[in-house]
Specification:
Blueprint (H helix, E strand, L loop, with lengths): L6 E2 L7 H10 L4 E4 L5 E5 L2 H8 L4 E2 L2 H4 L1 H4 L10 H4 L10 H11 L4 H21 L9 E2 H6 L1 H11 L3 H15 L5 H24 L5 H7 L10 H31 L2 H8 L5 H11 L5 E7 L3 E3 L2 E3 L4 E5 H4 L3 H4 L28 H18 L4 E2 L21 E3 L6 H4 L1
Parallel strand pairs: 1-2, 3-9
Antiparallel strand pairs: 2-3, 4-6, 5-11, 6-9, 7-8, 10-11
InterPro entries: Cyt_P450, Cyt_P450_B, Cyt_P450_CS, Cyt_P450_sf
Organism: Sphaerisporangium rubeum
Family: Belongs to the cytochrome P450 family.
Length: 415
């Protein structure tokens, strides 16, 4: 890797936005150090990111284009091994990616999106009903009680996973996004989620149903090819992880932003601004996925005085795109649902654009709209500065989201 002294990324994710600002100012691509001393190029400028996401010289396949991985220099217990060892459309390249995306795309139909809508409404109200018993003035962790279970349970139902199995798998996902894990934990994560997915697939082969896993088992290309066992296992896990974790963080960030900007919340409640505006502005200023490991240079890539050599890994910072002042001006870091241009790349861009974007938007709109209708006096139970970030530079959210569901009852009124 042709570079000077690399910047060591903060694995605790204490301030991912300030870190992105620093790296953006250093150039179109900046050498950084990942956990385990692995070196990569960090990209934080919106124009460079947009170009690289559609550049055929950039791949997500470590097994084909990362020499250190191919040669065994990246150990099987590397802290981030789960992100690059997958064998699915997320890590495929060229014709293989087209084949896999076409097969998986058959499971994400418009019909399925609309069919799940009544269940999203039902589950949203069920979760909010359960909060009715919380007394006024008693804080509740809305991330744990609402932001997490709504998308997680919906995605689990889409792939045909039981609530019990989801609870076990969720622990694996939480460990996977944690960039402070040890090598020993990293090795266990990889085996843990593959075992869980293998159990799910075996169950669906024996008991096929109306779910994505059953569809993927049956899916075949026109030439008769199917997903291999590894592709099937890793694809289902990718759907579960991507569909749940990103939407969990979206709810977390959207609720936080609205509660800390009450004037803007009133614009939504009064109908002057739509929930779609809230969704896109949240995705712009607080992308739920910060940085997704990894991409690789298929050949030398020249970027305004910087060259990313062939075979070097690239870390794209999605959370930096919408906050780039060259795209959104000096107020790029401010939450403003009235701004006209809310451009972001939080669903990706180009060949890896999120297949589940339609479902995610629907869950987000129903979830937020119902939450604030049911609990119009919702407020944070702590100062925004006291919210603790997740221990990761991959995802963007909080460890907890303590809120008061109702306004406190005055002492005189309760006497």
């Amino acid at each position: 890797m042709e570079q000077g002294c690399p910047v060591r990324l903060d694995t605790t994710g204490r301030d991912i936005h300030a870190e992105a600002d620093k790296l953006r100012a250093m150039g179109p691509a900046t050498p950084v150090e990942l956990p385990g001393g692995v070196l990569a190029w960090s990209v934080n400028r919106h124009d460079v990111i947009r170009d690289l996401l559609t550049d055929p010289r950039v791949t997500k396949s470590a097994r084909n284009h990362w020499p250190k991985f191919i040669n065994g220099e990246i150990p099987p217990d590397w802290e981030m091994i789960s992100w690059i060892a997958m064998d699915n459309m997320v890590t495929a390249y060229g014709k293989e990616h087209v084949r896999l995306r076409k097969l998986v795309g058959k499971a994400f139909t418009r019909r399925r999106t609309e069919a799940i809508r009544p269940r999203v409404v039902e589950l949203t109200n069920h979760l909010l009903d359960a909060l009715e018993a919380v007394p006024p003035g008693e804080p509740v962790d809305l991330r744990e009680r609402f932001a997490y279970p709504l998308p997680a349970l919906i995605v689990a139902e889409l792939i045909g996973m039981s609530e019990e199995a989801l609870a076990k798998t969720a622990k694996v996902i939480e460990m996977m996004i944690d960039t402070t894990v040890s090598p020993e934990q990293a090795a266990a994560i990889l085996g843990g989620w593959r075992d869980a997915m293998a159990d799910l697939i075996a169950d669906k082969r024996a008991n096929p149903a109306e779910d994505i896993t059953t569809d993927l088992i049956a899916a075949r290309e026109e030439d008769g090819s199917r997903l291999t066992e590894a592709e099937l296992t890793d694809t289902i896990f990718a759907i579960l992880g991507a569909g749940s974790e990103t939407t969990i963080n979206f709810f977390d960030n959207a609720i936080t932003a609205l509660l800390t900007h009450p004037d803007q919340l009133e614009l939504v409640k009064s109908g002057q601004v739509s929930w779609d505006d809230v969704i896109d502005e949240t995705l712009r200023v607080q992308s739920p996925l910060a940085q997704l490991p990894l991409r690789y240079a298929v050949e030398d890539i020249h970027l305004d005085g910087v060259t990313i050599p062939k075979g070097d890994p690239i870390l794209i910072n999605y959370s930096a795109v919408g906050r780039d002042p060259s795209l959104h001006g000096e107020t790029a870091g401010e939450f403003d649902i009235t701004r006209a241009d809310k451009e972001h790349l939080s669903f990706g861009h180009g060949p890896h654009y999120c297949l589940g974007a339609g479902i995610a938007r629907m869950v987000a709109a129903i979830g937020l709209g119902t939450l604030f209708e049911r609990y119009p006096d919702l407020s944070l139970a702590v100062e925004e500065s006291d919210l603790q970030p997740l221990p990761t530079f991959i995802m963007n959210g909080h460890r907890t989201l303590p809120v008061y569901l109702r306004a406190a009852v005055p002492a005189a009124a309760s006497a």
